[in-house]
Design goal:
The two termini are 23 Å apart. The protein is globular, with a radius of gyration of 20 Å. By secondary structure, it is of the alpha/beta class. The chain has 16 helices and 13 strands. It has a single domain, classed as 3-Layer(aba) Sandwich (Rossmann fold). It has a 9-stranded mixed sheet, with helices on both faces. A two-stranded antiparallel sheet has the order 5-6. A two-stranded antiparallel sheet has the order 11-12.
Length: 426
């Protein structure tokens, strides 16, 4: 079973054995990374002479989950300076949790910063050092590839260690221990740093994220757009198409205290769609449509897109978790084959629903459904070779960010490389 985040985990283990989080390390991986030091670690407690040391949002300071068994609750983020006046805002993925069973008993989320989330390891990836190459890690983070449309852009990398899709602002007391769902709190301190460091707005801002970060990208988009209204934006959600259960929305989401992008919170008095809305009754298609329709006008077009494989095994896995959240064993969650067809059908319904609703306005939303079952693409070397129905992902991405005029939905059907262990669908 090919899950790209498992490959990233393998890279994490390798880096853990030969690097430290000390950016002054003299390890082999530092020399393996080459001579270009791209990444800078931002410690919000000391950055800009302590300007954010007292930062709080909803009375909470930035933090990782502080789950039992973790070694640190410290949150940090990373920046890279390029030669172009453009910016990538990247939300990392790492699962989610909303119930004691999958927050404490059988955790299904990244609970603290990963070993690769340090300057040395990120430089190995961006310089395509041996460990990155052998594990097929790179994608938009490969700054050695001339085909990378973002190689000269600035980056801000936002880690994910809170289990709340970058949406939360709540320390929730589960029966097995309290989890700090502070993903949106973490984003807000990053946003403060961005506003302080980009007093001249970037020409272009590409907002994106993988897996759980895909949801963070769209829900936090209004905050970014309100902060940089003069920049030209585009957005891509990688492997987060929003196939969820009603019980997840009604019983799970309240545990996070979701920071809905209302007009008051974003500072955009004209963006009132979410004012007074109960997001536990909304589908992702409605969220995408609301954001895309508001920020597209007759004088400005913002491209929104979603990428997924047709049989994404990780998204099917989480759908099974939602359906059987009280399972006695996490092995029950691994048996998602019975819901694979249902997930596949609902995935297509969600994407076509967003496209249909935004086509009625001046906004532009398109999707890219690729063959196979792999989960996420933006950190994979497959980013440069992925093809669906004769269209390369790279050309589609260039259309998304306005580097070409061709941007329309792509679907692998009927050649979608259905896995051999997938059931026959009706």
């Amino acid at each position: 079973m090919k899950i790209r985040l498992l490959i990233l985990f393998i890279l994490t283990l390798a880096l853990a054995s030969c690097t430290s989080s000390d950016s002054d390390s003299d390890s082999d991986e530092t020399s393996d990374a080459g001579t270009t030091a791209y990444w800078n670690e931002i410690d919000w407690t000391t950055a800009d002479s302590g300007a954010y040391a007292s930062f709080t949002h909803e009375g909470l300071q930035p933090s990782c989950s502080n789950a039992s068994g973790t070694t640190s609750a410290d949150f940090k983020f990373f920046s890279k300076t390029g030669s172009a006046n453009n910016l990538v805002v990247y939300f990392q993925g790492g699962g989610a949790c909303w119930h004691n069973n999958n927050c404490n008993t059988f955790p299904t989320n990244t609970q603290e910063l990963e070993y690769f989330e340090n300057e040395t390891a990120l430089d190995v990836i961006s310089n395509q050092g041996d460990l990155a190459v052998s594990n097929n890690i790179g994608g938009i983070f490969d700054f050695t590839n001339a085909d990378n449309p973002f190689k000269d852009w600035d980056f801000v990398y936002i880690p994910y260690c809170t289990g709340d899709l970058h949406w939360g602002a709540k320390d929730n007391a589960y029966s097995g221990g309290t989890i700090r769902h502070r993903g949106h709190v973490n984003f807000q301190v990053v946003l403060e740093w961005l506003k302080a460091h980009y007093t001249t707005a970037p020409d272009k801002i590409f907002v994106t994220g993988i897996s759980g970060g895909a949801y963070g990208s769209v829900f936090n988009f209004p905050y970014l757009k309100a902060s940089f209204p003069d920049s030209r934006f585009s957005l891509l959600g990688d492997a987060g198409v929003g196939v969820v259960t009603d019980s997840f929305k009604t019983d799970g989401l309240p545990n996070w205290n979701i920071q809905v992008p209302t007009s008051t919170r974003t500072g955009d008095s004209s963006f009132t769609y979410f004012d007074g809305k109960d997001v536990t009754t909304m589908d992702l298609s409605e969220i995408y449509s609301a954001v895309a329709d508001h920020y597209n006008t007759s004088s400005e077009t913002i491209n929104f897109g979603q990428y997924t494989t047709d049989w994404d095994n990780n998204q099917a896995y989480f759908y099974q978790v939602m359906l059987d959240i009280t399972a006695d064993s996490n092995s029950d969650w691994e048996s998602y084959e019975d819901v694979w067809c249902d997930w596949n059908s609902k995935m297509r319904q969600n994407l076509t629903s967003i496209e249909a609703s935004t086509d009625a306005s001046v906004s532009s939303f398109e999707y890219y459904i690729a063959p196979g079952e792999a989960h996420t693409i933006l950190m994979s070397t497959d980013f440069y070779t992925e093809t669906s129905d004769g269209t390369t992902l790279l050309s589609w991405i260039n259309g998304l960010i306005g580097e070409s005029s061709v941007f329309e939905s792509v679907d692998c059907d009927p050649n979608c490389d259905k896995p051999t262990d997938a059931p026959t669908c009706n």
